[in-house]
Amino acid sequence: MASTITLALALTACGSGDSGSGDGASGDAAKTGDIRVWLVGTDTPADAREYLKTTFEKENPGSTLTIEEQSWTGLVDKLTTSLASSDSPDVVEVGNTQAAAFTSAGFFTDLTDKYEALGGDDLLPGFVEAGTYDEKFYAAPYYSGARAVFYSQQIVGDGFVAPETLDDYVAQGKALTTDTRSGIYWPGQDWYNGLPYIWENGGFIAEKKGDKWEAGFSSEGGIKGLEQIQDVMLTASKAPKDGQETDQQIPFCEGNIGFLSAPTWVQWSIKAEETAEAPGCATTYGSDLHAFALPGKEAGTAAQVMAGGSNIAIATKSQNQELALSALEIMLSDGYQEIMATNGLIPAKVSQAKFLPDDEITQAGAAAAAAAKLTPASPKWADVEAKRYLQDAFVQLAQGGDVQAIATKLDEQIESTLNS
Question: In what order do the strands lie in the sheet with 64-70?
């Protein structure tokens, strides 16, 4: 298993990122102070958060660390405003596809001379590249992950055999669909799950042609992918046509999902005990949770899925540069990254992959990660995400809109943004 994960780690880091400039870590920061760490969503496990706070406050007597959880929705706009203000957070998590927008704009402290101390060549190379701009290192890897397809034996039935190709997957999803159940659960705004269909059908998101970006949703392969996506949305999904990919454990736990393509850490929401605050289904499906890697167009291959994950950085405007660096060092320490790995997140440090669980779900995630790709390596890609062009286009697909018209408009919007 360790060799499989190590390969996946190397191949997951397949993208590149442009980044920006910022001041070096200050040597005259206050020796004590209160720092704020922005973590996004619930992906960082509770025991990692506790380890960070406890270790930081022990190593920095008289100082405090407060974790402030942010939402992925609207994150780019909120970070843009907050990182430019006098009340900037000190350490921030940012999606790996968003990192280039902030490094290239000078929002992050230059960590080039801290690269070796933070992990050096043990750090995920693709995420290092995503956090690097103009040959300077600004945003360190935090964790990586990939999507796997979750299912319950109680839903798919005895004798279930995982599909060998993407077309088989779609056919099986349709067969599992009922009046109340999604064979393949696909809320309209979820564009992340759409990218494998584009890539596997020979399409592309956007590619650099000379000094200009060319979008590819309206290419021959892009259209084929979008048509297959729309087919799934209209015939195999009962999810809201304008819904978001949040709290997917709820319909799953209600038995209303056959296949759920989601980041591997969603397993913890499904396996959670049933409470008003965290509706899971540990007693119903938690012990009967299985997963496989989304298959590709060719039998025996894993689909090219989007490489998910985050980078972590120090804000240029942080008034506590030394303390922020101390927090960052803890987050990239072996102890902290071991916690991330044991919770099923591919750690920022390749050496800590040995602590990943040796189970079916982790193996499915590793197989998916080995074929994963990143979004276009443009500092302006985060602007594309922030303007919600993809969400809007996918909602139109889910509502039965004209594929060619949707693709053409989406390409125009992407090219206008990336080339502006």
Answer: 64-70, 34-40, 91-95, 308-314, 139-145, 346-347
Q: Taking Cα atoms as reference points, which of 145, 377, 158 lies closest to residue 266?
A: 145
Q: How far apart are CA 414 and CA 274, in angstroms?
A: 42
The whole-angstrom separation of Cα 5 and Cα 142 is 17
Query: HEC string of the chain?
Result: CHHHHHHHHHHHCCCCCCCCCCCECCCCCCCCCEEEEEEECCCCCHHHHHHHHHHHHHHCCCCEEEEEEECCCCHHHHHHHHHCCCCCCCEEEEECCCHHHHHCCCCECECHHHCCCCCHHHECHHHHHHCEECCEECEEEEEEECEEEEEEHHHHCCCCCCCCCHHHHHHHHHHHCCCCCEEECCCCCCCHHHHHHHHHCCCCCEEEECCEEEECCCCHHHHHHHHHHHHHHHHCCCCCCCCCCCCCHHHHHCCCEEEEEEEHHHHHHHCCCECCCCECCCCCCHHHEEEECCECCCCCCECCCECEEEEEEEECCCCCHHHHHHHHHHHCCHHHHHHHHHCCCEECEHHHHHHCCCCHHHHHHHHHHCCCECCCCCCCHHHHHHCCHHHHHHHHHHCCCCHHHHHHHHHHHHHHHHCC
pTM of the model: 0.77
Packing angle, helices 220-235 and 403-418, rounded to 10: 120
- Please give the Cα distance from 268 to 287 (Å, whole number): 11
User: Which pLDDT value is given to residue 221?
Assistant: 98
Of 390, 394, 413, nearest to 230 by C-alpha is: 394
Label residue 272 exposed, middle or buried (CB < 10 Å: 0-12, 13-18, 19+).
Answer: middle
Residue pLDDT, tens place only, 100-111: 889 989 999 999
Would residue 344 be called left, alpha or beta, if left means φ above 0 and alpha means ψ between -120 and 50 degrees?
left
Gap between the Cα atoms of 322 and 114, Å rounded: 12
Alpha-carbon distance of 43 to 61, in angstroms, equals 28
The whole-number pLDDT of residue 278 equals 67
Q: What is the pLDDT of residue 369?
A: 82
**Largest Cα span, the chain:** 65
CA distance 48 to 39: 11
Mean pLDDT computed over 329-349: 94
Enumerate the β-bridge partners of residue 313.
92, 139
